[in-house]
Structures are given as structure tokens and as C-alpha cells.
Amino acid sequence: MGIRRTTIALLTVLGIGGAAHVWAEDHIVGLGALGPPLTAVGTKIRDPNWLVAYLLEPSRMTPGTSMPDFGFEPAEALAIAAALLADGSDSAGKTGAWKGGNPRTGERLFVARGCRGCHAVRPGEHGVSERVPSLAGAGLKLRGAWIAAWLASPRAYHSRTAMPRIALTDDEIRHLVAFVLEQRAGEEAVAEAPRFDPAADRARGVELLEHYECSTCHTLRGLPAAAPPYELTTADGTGDRDALLHDGRMLVAYYNCRGCHSIEGRGGAIGEHLERKTLAPPTLTGEGARVQPSWLRSFLQHPVTLRPWLEIRMPDYELSESEASVLARYFAAAADVEATDEPLPAASEESVRRGLRRFAHFKCVQCHRTERGATPPVGADAADLAIDLSLAKKRLRPSWMRRFLARPKEIAGTATRMPAVFYTSEGSPRVDDPEGDIDAITTFVMRMSASPETLLAELGKEREEKDGAGDIDWSTYEY
Fold first, then answer.
1. In the 8-state DSSP scheme, what is residue 45?
2. Which long-range contacts (CB under 8 A, 24 or more apart) does 453-458 make?
3. Could you tell me the CA-to-CA distances from 384 to 12, 188, 310, 319, 368 in Å, in that order?
4. How do residues 106-136 score in pLDDT, each as one tens digit?
5. 90: buried, middle or exposed (CB in 10 Å: 19+, 13-18, 0-12)?
6. pTM of the prediction?
């Protein structure tokens, strides 16, 4: 282990440092190296001289890269560059209308869609992991058409990439391409490097690629396949808590989940770049105690939009069934709960109706949507809108919902906008029957069969027919 990696690992053990703490996790959990494929390099690299400069001084061109400095002589770098750039037979990156984007719109999207949580774009800045490339010099390195194709389908180029597929329109891709192409750090180093020579000794370049065992990290035509970056020991459903925590932490590190989320108390780097911190992705510390494992497994494989009014959304990592299962069990283990769905307690029809009335009394729909696809109220501030409750009966554990309603900030953190309705911070009741209300609302939400507005209209009609009363104001209804 080099001095740099040893230092990072030591900082982590001592609990010092932010980015270093996250970086060191790759090594602590045992992630193997995995660089990008070195096939079809000619379709990717915009300036061959950049590749020469990178081979000579990787850390100067891409600060924080895990690519070692092999100390190549100029002639060796030229030979390797010629060998790599001769392979341009793949079609990836050759097609697609990518021009015409607005770089300022792309800069905003780069943050709004979560890219900034993983990638650095300023010279000398580090990303969430040394495996995540800095884009500070991407405008010198990458072809616009390749960037567009990569954004549309990362795994079409790199089958084992941790880069997710983000739901982007063609126009959004063009804007992001325009922004990335503006990043041109390293121009001086490229200018100082020897000029690329297509007539350089390609055979010598191939020999050097084999000699330095570049296929250990990269896919290269004609050379042994790179080893997988990780192996899961609990994918078959076995393993004790320590094994589950290890495998889960390995996947969290590999997919850079902490770029957006706080997990086990660390992470959430994207929040540093958002103008409004309240619009950041949620903390996943304690997620296993919050959600049902079956829902989490499904969500990780096929993400659905939980907050449609936000631009930043969970992308699709195209996780395998075993990866999703390991992560669901990891989150349960980290929260010290069983990795099995929690059953709904039995409830009477009257308790469901009482929950509906109390749900209306506390005006929960002012912040929560209760129908898939429902639009927020006109003029509503996105920061005041909460998660869609139509998914609660499949998504949430009933025990967690009860605890959350009783002590929202203690359970979800001080950043939550959920008010303390039933108890003060000292634990004193705010309402006459806090536990009864909490139980009733939980019961209703977990069994909600239609929107509260529809159900209240039906209930009001029943009472009108029975008692002859007019419209009922449920917010003042007496119990």
C-alpha cells in the first residue's frame, strides 16, 4: 500500500477527514480495482495528446486518480497511446445528435440530477471516491458524441460500471455535454507532452500493456478479463450480521451511495452543492428500520419516483436481484432489525375511519400527496412537500411510522420538516389522546384504499344520511 493510501486509511481509523474518510472505505471493505474498458478508446478520446500526457503523469491530469504513475518514458507512452487508439472498432459513442446544448443549463442539471455528488469538476478537487473520475479536464479528453452515448446508457460501454442510468431527455443530455466539454483543466500539461504519433510502435505498446498487467483493472482485447471488483459472500441468503454488514458496505462503497445519502451517519456530499439543503436526498441511516425489505429490494432494482416535484431523483443502477437482496438485508442489519416484512396488526373498520378523521383533522394532505401522479397544490414550496403516502402500506414498517409520528426529529433527524404534532420535545402530550391518534392514523395510512378526500366525502355522505347534518369540518370534529 502506497504512502497516500496508508495515510487515508489512517485518517479513517482516527475518524479524521471528510473526503479521505469516504475514499479509504474502498480499501477497507476490500473493493478490487476496476478501471474503464480500454476497448474502442478511439471513439472516446477527443485529443490523442491528452492520452499521452495522462500516461506520463496520471495524477497531474486527473488529481486523485487510482491510476498508478508507472514512470513511462515518452517513447513508451507514445507506443501505448498508438496501441490503444488503434482500437476504435466499437460503435459506442459514434452516433447521436449531441450539439447545441447550453452549458449554464447543463451546470445546473449537473447538480440537480445528482452528478455533483460523485464527480469533481474543479481543478484539484476530489470526487466521492478515487474510482470516480474528476471531470475537471473532461473537455480535453472526451468526445461530445461519446459523452452523450455514455449518459444515455453507461452499461452499453462499461458493463460493470457504477455509473447509474439517469432519466434524461435528449435536450438535457445536450446541456450536460456542453457543460462537461467546458471543463478543460490540464491544457498546460497537454501542451508540454510529446505529440501523439500514430506511427509509433504499436506492438511495443501492446507488450507494455501486458507487462504492466493493465488487464488487472481494464478490459483489453486479447488479454485476460479483469477480475470482478467485489465478491458477495451473502448473496445466497446466508451469512451472519458481520458478513451482511461487510457485503452491504462493499456495495455502498462501489456504487458511491454516500455521494447523495448519509448512511450509517456518513455521506450526503451532494447537499453541499444544493442551494436549498432541504431538497437533498434523504438520509438512509436507519433505513432498514423504516422500510419493508421486500419493497426496498424492488425499489433498488426498479426505482420509482417518491417526490415527483424534485429534480434530483434516485437513478437506476441496474442492480441484480442478488445485489438488491444483499443491500436490503444490509440495511436491516445496520438498523438491528429482522430482514423480514413486518405484518400489519389487525384493525377494526372503526379504527380505520377514526384514523381517516384524524388524518383530516391534522391537515396531513397539505404536505403529503396520497395519489400516484397527483400534482402539488398551486404555489406550494417544494421544500414543504413530503413523501407520497400512497406507497406507505407497501413501503413503511408500521412500527417505524408510529415512532416517527411520536418523535419525528428524533427518528428522522433535525432536518425533517415534519412537525411534532403529538408530543413536545420533552415528551409532554400536545393532544388529548396522542397514542390513540398515532395508532389510528398509522392504521388508516397503512390501509388507505382511496384518496382521503374521496373517503371523507363518502363518510360525510353516510353521516348526512344518518344524522341529517350538512358538510362536516373534520379539522374541528369533536372526539
1. B
2. 453/365, 455/356, 456/356, 456/357, 456/360
3. 36, 48, 11, 32, 9
4. 999 999 999 999 999 999 888 877 788 899 9
5. middle
6. 0.86
